[in-house]
Amino acid sequence: MSVIGARQASVKRGGRTIFGPASIKIGAGEMTALIGPNGSGKSTLLRLLAGLWRPDSGDVFLDDKTIHSRPRKEIARRISFVPQETQIDFSFTVAEILAMGRYAHRGRLKPQSQADRTAVLAAAADCDITYLMDRAVNSLSGGERQRVLIARSLVVEPEFILLDEPTANLDIHHALDVLQLCESLSRKGKTVIVATHDFNLVTRYVTRLILLQEGLVIAEGPQEDVLGPETIRKVFQVEAEMVPMKTGHPVYVFHQRTQNP
Amino acid sequence: MSAAAQSNPLTNASSRSRLRLPIFYGILVPIIFLSLLAGVGIGSTHISWITILRVVEFKILPHAWTTSVHVTQADAVIVWLIRVPRVIVAFFVGAGLAAAGVLLQALFRNPLAEPGLVGAGEGAVLGGVISFVTGWSATSVLSLPLMAMAGALLALFVVYVMSTRGGVTPVATLLLAGVATSALLSAVASLLLSVNIVNWQIAQEIVFWMMGGLDARTWTHVWLCAPFVVLGVAACLIQTRDLDLLQLGEETAASFGVDVESSKRMLTLTAAILTGAAVAVAGLIGFVGLVVPHAVRLVLGPSNRVLLPASALTGGAFLVLCDLLARTIHPPTEIRLGIVTALCGGPLFIYLLLRQYRGAANS
Amino acid sequence: MHSIRTIVPPAVLILLVVAIAGAVHTYASPPGGLQLPVLEREDGDARVRTGQPQYPRDAVDSDEITVSIARPAHRIVSQYWSIDEFVYSVVPPQDVVAVSESAYVEEISNVLPSVRQFKPAVATDPERVVALDPDLMFVSNNGRADYTSLARSSGVPVYRMETNFETLDQIEQNIRLVGYLTGQDESAAKEASRFHDAIDKAVSLRPPGSPKPRILGLGGRYSYGKKTLFQDVVTKLGGVNVGAENGIVGYDAVNFEQIIRWDPEWIVAGAQTGDTKQVLATLMSDPAISLTQAARNGHIVVIDNRVFLPMSPYTSILVQAIAEAIYGRGHTGDKL
After folding, report:
1. Rounded to whole angstroms, what are the CA distances from C214 to B296, C251, C293, C333?
2. Alpha-carbon distance B49 to B75, whole Å?
């Protein structure tokens, strides 16, 4: 049973606690969203769970052990982190980028194996980028690049996929593609965690929301438990009107907060 | 493509525009071979090819086989003690500088980085200047190269310690510390030079050395330089996958299992050793570490597994040819090697950039 | 705490460098290079450590290496400008196959006629030198060690010569040494005599019992103190070296205040060929120097660098020039 989570984890900078203490637990096959305004600690929590950052107190665990007690390669094989789209100045081809994802499986010296090749092709197919394999990655559009990054994380064949603002710079149809892809991955048994500031877009896809504000987890659970109009007013400083949808997941329409308190 | 494409015209290549590896080596290896031959065959005195072959044969084969070979002492000295070590040193210095350039371009995630950025080059120069000014360079062949190597490593140590906190070395800080330290060390070297300018012979030697040069290279210099270059390049050939991932971002690399801080330490140390070994035996030679990796990357692509050995070999051939030019343009005066590499490397670089830029604009 | 870690390493580096620079400056040298502490300087034959006059002849050079010479040399290479002058004053000019670069430079060379006639190669390129098939090479103790080791590995006898002299006697000894090494003993003895006699003649120009003139030597803004050849020249001529009098050791900078305070009676300065009049004029109008006795009495002597700078047999001309200027006709003027 794959479980990832945090126990009273907090992060300090310059003596001040900027995140936490926070405790959450995310189990296998779930698609979870970390939501909250900018600066609320979504990215921090995501990176703590990915094992990229160490908590200054408390603990982040993977299954039954502290994540940092596990070998680096094991963490890399089981957890995959997809960063927000970054500028790449080097003209690697998409195929080369995907092949790099097998680093944790291959190490420094072993040549490419059949398993590596299969993983690359499968990931490319899943993300619908097979037609881009020979292109230089820095000649792609934003959406294509994001799909390449997700494919690269799939190449790892991880149990957990953590994505940081995957829809931030995308056209709407690309954004929906990405989210649909994430949902299908979670249905296949992977645990998907998405950090996003656009909660309106993700509510349809996720089974659970974790709401953060100013470095603390203030609510978690399914949409109806977490995102009531009161909470939205308090955390996001806007008036929200819930509009019921046929999908069963209401969406929100926002109004500017009135001047009167 | 879509308007959202923020592509950098400098690197806007698809794999179709890359040269295939066998073609590249098919061109490079003969060039290396020819340039080594030219370096040994051409000099300020004329020696026939037969004589050169006989000398090499005499020196390499066991003596029993060569009793009938007849070469004069002068020819043997010129070929085996003057030309051959010089050409070998040129090759290894060029290879070392080019390899250091590849490493630093990966470390700083920038195709325009070059070996001097972490302070090792100027540290080596200062070490050499101190050796001249104290007179130690007059006493022993080893003192100048060893002081230069020590200077390179000391400078790197200072830069590294300044920019590392809690075991983490942010690359931006490393760059700033390196640039600042280079400036400081260069100023100190100039200060020592100016204080000693009255002693014109020492001053002249310092200035000539600072402009780079391979005059009077002996087999001692070969053994001082070659092992470090070979070791350095080998150490990095093992790390090429880490390099590739580091180039894409530290967070990315970490998430794929790379030990980022340890990799960066290894990278900077190896780059410093390569640079130090090169400056120790050849003075300050610029442009090789910048132009060669960049040019080879434009031709072969950014994968370090391919780029590193190709750059090293290309750098070696490039410097052998530059040294040949330095010796033969205006005999018997030698033009300083650093000047020749700048004069050759600069226009070559501009040409490559223009070609790439025009290619991107047309696509 | 963080700021300490940032400040300490560069501070250490700067301190280290400053300490080294300071040490270097303290042990600053007379023209021609730094004194290597290893060599002991003594007068007389100790500098010329040679063996028996029969061949093969042995001699110990400035690196403490014993050089063995099998026969008189007739293809000689000189790598340093003052060694050129020693060699040409002792051996027939056609026996010199390579010289230093300076030999061909008009402003500094005293051997131009010989090199123009016989056109020896320039000794900077080791390949050319080896190709000439020399039988004896002279290199300076200041030259780079890699050049010297390359020369030594070529199989030719290489004698590394000490080229910084502190006394005229040492120059005379060196003339004999060059004769010994090249097999031109007679010629060297003759030249050594000539040198010795010229010095004696110059010394004799001094009227006995006359007061000791206080002389300051000037090379640019630098003066010559104790343990320099200039000191020996001045002492032999019966003068007082103002630089040494005031504590300068070797070759060191002097400033306005010092020159005014020391107030030398005579100033002897060097100038590039053709510039002697100009340098004289500049010195006379220099704010510090114009206040000295030397300037007020017209006792400034400007001497061509070709004689002023080298420490070689040509130094006898320097001694004569100074003697004539002070004791002979005793007027201000430029020489040569």
Report:
1. 70, 18, 10, 18
2. 11
Interface probe, candidates A100, A110, A165, chain B, greatest B C-beta count within 10 A? A100
Contact call for B216 and C6, based on CB within 8 A: no
Q: Which residues contact C201 (CB under 8 A, 6 or more apart)?
A: C320
Do B282 and B339 meet the contact criterion of CB atoms below 8 Å apart? no
Which of A7, A107, A11, A18 lies closest to A67, judged by CA?
A: A7
DSSP state of C101: G
Structure tokens at A61: 């665990």
Which value does ipTM take for this structure? 0.85
CA nearest to A83, candidates B97, B250, C198 = B250
Burial class of B46 by CB neighbour count within 10 A (0 to 12, 13 to 18, 19+): exposed
User: B94 — phi, psi (to 5°)?
Assistant: -60, -40
Backbone angles phi, psi at B220, to 5 degrees: -55, -40
Touching, B vs A (3+ Cβ pairs under 8 A): yes
Give contacts of C220 with chain B, Cβ < 8 Å. Answer: 198
Question: CB–CB of C247/C224 below 8 Å?
Answer: no
* pLDDT tens sequence for chain B (363 residues): 333 333 333 333 445 567 788 899 999 999 999 999 999 998 888 888 888 888 887 777 766 555 556 777 788 888 888 899 999 999 999 999 999 999 998 888 877 788 888 888 899 999 999 988 888 887 777 888 888 988 998 998 899 888 888 778 888 888 899 999 999 999 999 998 888 777 777 788 888 888 888 888 888 889 889 999 999 999 889 889 899 999 888 888 999 988 898 888 888 889 989 999 999 999 889 889 999 998 898 889 889 999 999 999 999 999 999 999 998 888 767 889 999 999 998 898 888 778 767 766 654
Map residue A121 onto helix, strand or coil: helix
Rounded to whole angstroms, the Cα distance separating B209 from C179 reads: 35
Find out whether B193 and B56 touch, Cβ atoms under 8 Å: no
Residues, chain C? 336
A252 φ, ψ to 5°?
Answer: -120, 140
Number of CB pairs < 8 Å for A and B?
111
Distance CA B275, CA B127 (A): 13
Whole-number Å distance between alpha carbons of C160 and C157: 10
Identify each DSSP E strand in chain C by its residue range. Answer: 57-60, 66-69, 76-78, 96-99, 121-122, 136-140, 158-161, 214-218, 222-224, 240-241, 251-253, 266-271, 300-304, 333-335
A81 φ, ψ (degrees, to nearest 5): -115, 125
Contacts 24+ apart (CB under 8 A), A202-207: A202/A33, A202/A35, A203/A33, A203/A227, A203/A249, A203/A250, A203/A251, A204/A179, A204/A247, A204/A249, A205/A31, A205/A179, A205/A180, A206/A31, A206/A32, A206/A33, A207/A30, A207/A31, A207/A32
- By C-alpha distance, the chain B residue nearest C123 is B332
What residues contact C193, with CB distance under 8 A and at least 6 apart?
A: none
Closest Cα in chain C to B79: C127
Residue B223 burial (CB count, 10 A) = 11
| Helix intervals (H) in chain B | 21-41, 49-60, 73-76, 84-107, 120-133, 136-139, 143-163, 171-195, 200-210, 219-238, 240-247, 250-255, 260-282, 288-300, 304-328, 337-362
- List, in sequence order, every residue forming a beta bridge with C139; answer none if it has no partner: C160
